[in-house]
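Narrative of accomplishments. A recurring question from our advisory board has been how the design workflow behaves on a single, concrete structure rather than in aggregate. To address it, we present the structure tokens for one chain from the evaluation set, followed by the sequence designed for it. No filtering or post-editing was applied between the two.
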């Protein structure tokens, strides 16, 4: 199964990714996670990406595309993969098409998670992430059992630098101008399905699986 998850920041791509990779036994490829890991390790790529991430801007295509291309060549992607947060521009989508053509593979589906802006801002500005395993919580709607401690692994929870309200607003603006055109791009290819992700996350997952099967 080869899936792309589309949708604005905060739409629940990360949450749905967890369920989908488990169901289809495929690797979860999140370009945001790759940048954050690089930043933690203070690599050149991580430090360069931070300049854009902190402002809520997209990292330039040339820095992103080759990471994904290399990742798709790894052994665990042979039977499929889930792309979360990539592609985010038409240029990235075209580069992905080219690479997939070379590998003689196609996408099974592009799932567009749709949700209202007000809910997104509320979700993102209250989001807490585990430093160790990446599990996400919400300080208002989905609190961990112990304050600031991950239920899954006991890791410490933190607020992402780019989840501050001004950066969030900028990320939504950037999404609308640079990523939204992908909806038309994949609609024309006949592989896009839109799901209302304002519902309970388990219902959203069931809906996505129904579409993919
Ligand atoms: P995410 O975790 O997917 O919300 O990504 C966090 C940030 O990483 C984004 O706001 C961008 O700055 C950067 N980023 C992640 N994926 C991409 C991508 N495909 N293209 C450009 N920038 C990206």
């Amino acid at each position: 199964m080869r899936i792309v998850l589309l949708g604005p920041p905060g739409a629940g791509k990360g949450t749905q990714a967890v369920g989908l990779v488990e169901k289809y036994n495929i690797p979860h490829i999140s370009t945001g996670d790759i940048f954050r890991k690089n930043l933690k390790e203070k690599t050149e790529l991580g430090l360069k990406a931070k300049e854009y991430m902190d402002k809520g801007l997209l990292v330039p295509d040339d820095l992103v595309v080759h990471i994904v291309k290399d990742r798709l060549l790894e052994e665990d992607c042979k039977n499929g993969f889930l792309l979360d947060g990539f592609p985010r521009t038409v240029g990235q989508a075209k580069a992905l098409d080219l690479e997939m053509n070379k590998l003689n593979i196609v996408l099974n589906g592009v799932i567009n998670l749709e949700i209202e802006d007000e809910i997104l801002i509320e979700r993102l500005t209250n989001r807490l992430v585990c430093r160790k395993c990446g599990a996400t919580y919400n300080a208002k709607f989905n609190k961990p059992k112990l304050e600031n401690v991950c239920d899954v692994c006991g890791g410490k929870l933190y607020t992402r630098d780019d989840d501050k309200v001004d950066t969030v607003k900028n990320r939504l603006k950037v999404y609308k101008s640079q990523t939204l055109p992908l909806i038309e791009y994949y609609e024309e290819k006949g592989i896009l399905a839109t799901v209302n992700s304002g519902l309970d996350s388990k219902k959203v997952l069931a809906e996505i699986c129904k579409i993919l099967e």
